[in-house]
Design a protein that fits this description.
This protein has 299 residues and is α/β, with parallel strands linked by helices. The protein has five helices and 17 strands.
Length: 299
């Protein structure tokens, strides 16, 4: 492609680049730490391609009406609805330094069971009020004695469960249903949940997950590893939809890793991106932001 001194052509290039950068300054849905990403720039060798990119996370499309997030760093839990309502409660999670204590596990789970009173035989038949279990013997609950209230929203103080006030526990017990997702992370989840409808589902490419088991866990963990290595557009085909009523067997589904996700994802079809017939600005669609993740600008 030969150089041109046409001002209109140069103006079109500049406008395209500005649009890419502008839409990259977007808040991440589902992340309650108020973080945002600054776009970075990468030029491929001596070519005339410039890529503006932002970190990509794994989006899980949810067909239900509500789900729960737990931020262990903030000691807060969020009940999020399709209507945009967020019920935030202070919690106190597991402390591994207590006798027989463990950290509340991170991962993707679903509510498994509920009970007005659950007895903990492991801890001297302690009565756990308004029990909402999501990972075996790990769940939300309150206690008759309220000395733990001073820890809520401040520090971990339980032996592994997620404590909440009895007032919040009563409210949540009434509205939380068995089968809704529970996303637990320490500070920043590398998976996000986005509400969707069945009309968005493409049976030729997408899959619907109805049960969180070991095979599903392996599949989802591999998808996240591909993103981590920059191969999302190469190896992750289709989208993952979560059914409205999930069966959960407490698999180890990773939502955050020790390694930082790579910011740059290799384009899926490099040949098409290099095609001179492309528009001045092309993009690889990324569902989480509903904007372009990779912008091609020709000079």
């Amino acid at each position: 492609m030969k150089q041109s001194g046409n001002n209109k052509f140069n103006l079109g290039i500049i406008v395209s680049a500005i649009i890419c950068i502008f839409f990259s300054f977007r808040f991440l849905p589902g992340n309650h730490s108020n973080d945002y990403y600054v776009p970075k720039v990468k030029k491929i060798g001596k070519s005339n391609l410039i890529f503006y990119y932002i970190p990509l996370k794994d989006t899980l499309y949810y067909l239900g009406d509500d789900y729960i997030e737990i931020n262990l760093k903030l000691q807060l839990a969020f009940h999020i609805t399709r209507d945009g309502e967020i019920d935030t409660v202070k919690i106190s999670s597991g402390n591994k330094y207590l006798s027989k204590g463990i950290e509340t596990p991170t991962g993707l789970f679903a509510v498994q069971n509920k009970a007005p009173i659950q007895i903990s035989r492991q801890f001297e038949n302690t009565e756990m009020l308004n029990w909402i279990g999501f990972s075996g013997n790990i769940g939300f609950h309150g206690l008759k004695k309220r000395g733990y209230y001073s820890s809520l929203g401040r520090r971990p103080s339980s032996h592994g469960c997620v404590r909440m006030s009895n007032e919040d526990g009563i409210r949540w017990y009434k509205k939380i249903k068995i089968g809704i997702p529970v996303l637990v992370y320490k500070s920043k989840s590398e998976r996000v949940i986005k509400f969707a409808s069945f009309q968005d589902f493409n049976p030729r490419e997408d899959i619907i997950v109805q049960s969180l088991n070991s095979s599903v866990g392996n599949f989802l963990n591999e998808r996240l590893m591909n993103i981590q290595q920059g191969y999302h557009y190469w190896r992750n085909s289709g989208r993952v939809f979560l059914a409205s009523m999930l069966r959960s067997y407490s698999p180890r589904i990773v939502v955050e890793t020790n390694e930082q996700l790579t910011s740059f994802q290799l384009p899926k079809l490099v040949g098409e991106l290099l095609n001179e017939n492309n528009n001045v600005s092309t993009f690889v669609y990324t569902d989480i932001f509903n904007i372009s993740d990779t912008c091609q600008v020709k000079r």
